[in-house]
Amino acid sequence: MMQTELCRRVFELEFPPTEVELKSKYRTLSKERHPDTGGSHKAFVELKEAYDMLLGYATEAKKYQDRTSQGDLLVDLGKGLGPTTNGAHCKDCNSLGYIQKMRVTSYTQTPCLRCQIQCGRCAGRGKLKATLCPECAGTGTFRLLSHCFACLTVGYLSKPVYTPVYLTCSLCEGTGEIQIMNPVLPKGAVR
Q: How many whole angstroms separate alpha carbon 88 and alpha carbon 185?
């Protein structure tokens, strides 16, 4: 059976599905078709076999989506200089052909707990019986007006969120090997 038919008939997804789509749909359908929840054994086995097959395609397809910032596919890098050219291991990229760097893409903000104190009148609840506390306006805390070294008196702490960025190695130009000019030694003799 063709993978596209499996994808459409069993999972009701377009081919090729992403890993996230496939896993999400599999969880939903497995709950419906599991024999313990009233589904048939045959339908559940068919679902599991289709999932295993399509997951392999989804992970393989993901390899061909990861690119460096220069536009090179990661799977095409680090394949060496070829069978006739002598090369040595590239120490910059560890023979991968690309270098992974982490870049800050955004910041998460959390309230600073060092410069906040609990309201004494409502004991941090924010309410007095059925009304809001007039002292803290329902927050349950006060912000200290003195200098806070943790948040620099801003009131919140910022933490960076990192995402990986791939760069083609400039030393070996993505091959994973550095060419050695030695016409006497055969390929593989130099490490």
A: 12
pTM summary value = 0.44
The CATH code of domain 3-63 reads: 1.10.287
Would you list the domain boundaries of the chain? 3-63, 67-106+160-191, 113-154
* pLDDT tens for the chain, residues 1 to 191: 466 676 677 777 777 677 888 888 888 888 888 888 888 888 888 888 888 888 887 777 776 667 777 777 777 777 766 666 667 788 888 888 888 888 888 888 887 777 777 777 777 677 777 778 877 777 777 666 566 766 766 667 788 888 888 888 888 888 888 877 665 555 566 55
Q: Are 174 and 78 spatial neighbours (Cβ–Cβ below 8 Å)?
A: yes
